[in-house]
From TrEMBL:
Matches recorded under Pfam families: Anoct_dimer, Anoctamin
Regions that span the bilayer: 222-249, 300-320, 385-413, 433-454, 603-626, 749-778
Record carries keyword Ribosomal protein: no
Keyword Glycoprotein: yes
Coiled-coil region: none
Source organism per UniProt: Oreochromis niloticus (Nile tilapia)
Cellular component aspect of the GO annotation: plasma membrane
Protein name as catalogued: Anoctamin
Subcellular location: Cell membrane; Membrane
Domain (Anoctamin transmembrane): residue spans on this chain: 211-792
Domain Anoctamin dimerisation positions: 38-208
Similarity section: Belongs to the anoctamin family.
MF terms (GO), sorted A to Z: chloride channel activity; protein dimerization activity
Keyword terms of this UniProt record: Cell membrane, Glycoprotein, Membrane, Transmembrane, Transmembrane helix
Amino acid sequence: GRYLQQSGSPEHYTHYSVIDISIHHKHGANITYCHYYQESEDGKTYFVKIHAPWEVLATYADVLKIKVPFKVNDIPDNSEIPMNWLSTPFRLPEHIMNPEPDYFTAPFNKSKSDFFLIEDKETFFPPSTRNRIVYYILARCPYFKDECGDRDKKGIKRLLNNGTYTAAFPLHDSRYWTKSKDPNCESERFNLYKYWAKFFCFFKEQPLNLVRKYYGEKIGIYFAWLGFYTEMLFFAAVVGTICFVYGFLTYDDNEWSKEICSEEIGGNIVMCPLCDQKCTYWRLNITCNSSWQSHLFDNVATVFFAIFMGIWVTLFLEFWKRRQARLEYEWDLVDFEEEQQQLQLRPEYETKCTNRKLNRITQEMEPYLPITSKCARICLSGATVLLWISLIIACIIGVIAYRLAVYASFASIMKNNTATNLDVVAPYVTPQLATSVTASCINFVIIMILNLLYERVAIKITDMEIPKTHLEYENKLTVKMFLFQFVNYYSSCFYVAFFKGKFVGYPGNYTYMFGSSKLRNEECEPGGCLIELTTQLVIVMTGKQVWGNIQEALVPWLMNWWGSRKARSHPESLYSRWEQDYDLQGFGQLGLFYEYLEMVIQFGFITLFVASFPLAPLLALINNIIEVRVDAWKLTTQFRRPVAAKAHSIGAWEEILGGMAVLSVVTNAFIVAFTSDMIPRLVYMYAYRTHDELNMKGYINNSLSVFNISHLFKNLQENEIPDVLLLCRYRDYRYPPDDKKRYEHNMQFWHILAAKLAFIIIMEHVVFMVKFFVAWMIPDVPSDVRARVKRERYLVQEYLHNYEVEKLKIQHIFLLYAHIGLDSFCRPKPDM
């Protein structure tokens, strides 16, 4: 039950001493503080070590309704796994996986302590429970009372906030690379490092019960969710890899790519310029490579994988609810309520709110924020969020303008080298490839810069709103950060998927950015925009994951290495446990917030745009295997031990994941319909082919419209047009120049549009029906868990009833003996 504080003490304390102080709390318990004042490197830092005895722990375990064992679990475990020997390489030793026996538990009652299974009072409460109780007391102890006596200042959080103390944290029980020399110490930190935090344990199961015992339920449930998410990614990665392999194996069956690469077909098709003035005409066969690459991701398997991922998301969320329900029972969180956490005010709220009113729950006077001030702060916060989202959109427009300008510049350079030779491949491939890759890289750099800036802005505007409790603060920050990161990371992908090439116009009547601007809207190449969406997704997703892992692992290690550089020269006997822990990084109350945010953003990449890149789940799987061990390593070795906290779920993130799961069905349906060329190909195959065979021959010629250069309303002055060139082709479905409805959309365009809309409606309805059916079929709580919960509640009532009956019997016997003794004492003695 040890607890460590770091404080700035007066300079004149230059000796080592021990002082015992008893501080009383409203529940009538004392905490014995053992103060160790010891001079540090700067001569001003002193440590205070706090110990909570059994009476304190028992009192507050009663107050907090902490569940403790009262009977060994008597329900047989029938969960035998077929071919259980296959999982042997992935298992950990039993004492690591299940450090405590399985018990039925009930809320602790100090007056009935003999009802519970207490073998040793020193080890009855696990370390996470002990440090949570101590912090609960410290967070509520008053330390100042003003003259009026109605404004008590209390809580270690306020003392930390105003700089009286610099840190407050529980001690680690040992060094992570070696066991403690104390034989009574369990050295759980060493076990966590050995069996959990090492990277070479990546194929092993996680010791979640030990994580929960050492760090508490809130951290335990994060790693449980991350591990479960990684396990489910394995199935998505396998199916995605099969879809990719299918595209690779059907490489030679790609008729439209053969036509593009053919000298007789693609080599004789002259395409209209892709930009004004600086771009020249080009032959279709120079897009041969990109057409083959596009087929790897744009094939029939894409439709199947998009539908599969819509169902996979539902299975993931539903099975997680079941896993979460099981953890709630095993970790005694079934009846856990967060109201106790919600009643604790933030120190900043108490400091900044000068008005006071009666709290109906606690019946105490507490500070409050007037409604007018609250509304004004919320409006200002919302305006700031909108401003920054507008800044992101402006940056995306800037990247689009960059793409257009750089493409025109590259095309101009290549044009000067090739003049009017349409047989040269470089004029198209080099500008297109260079523009796409460099624009994606620049976009990623802008994303990371904006992310760094907005993180600070989000914290400041959330502080400006002055949330009342930490739970409210975290929820407000969650909404702001997720909304910003959603726009920041996904906006470029949304542009490529749903806007690029959709509003182009046609030769002589092109659509331009900013109206009269010279920047013409981008076109998709004949192979479609899907390959460019794939490129964008790979660069942003992979770059974020690699950078995130490097930052998470390297930054804390460098800061700890630099901070402890002087202490490393001291012998072990002079470098105490509290000094070692103080040199580590503080985990902070928002430590898990950033971990969840990182994984939820990744979840968006593999669900919202997965139809364009079936290998995205595989990349996410590889990253998460590393992420689990990196997070475990830094928590075990680079951070101070955080204060244990309870949490029965992943909180607001579960609702965000559910919303993204629904949105992913819509986005993938639109990607297949409008970004991929799957629907136009199917329409051609079944309705517009000019031969009897059911294949894609003639598709390329059918998908390109014809433009007569003499019909240009405004000639491209810098284009050198050969005398023999009268017609050029462009990507669209319009009537030819010799038709009365020339350059208007033809009937095939409307048929394809109807097919796309029909596909979206059918796919969405099919996937949503399957999702709702699967959600209905899979109960949120497993049947065996429901049975165990009912069994536990029944036993609590029965055992408590028997316990009370036995106490009444004993009391009755004592009263009877007392009555008999008193009666014999009062009765006169018979005559002798």
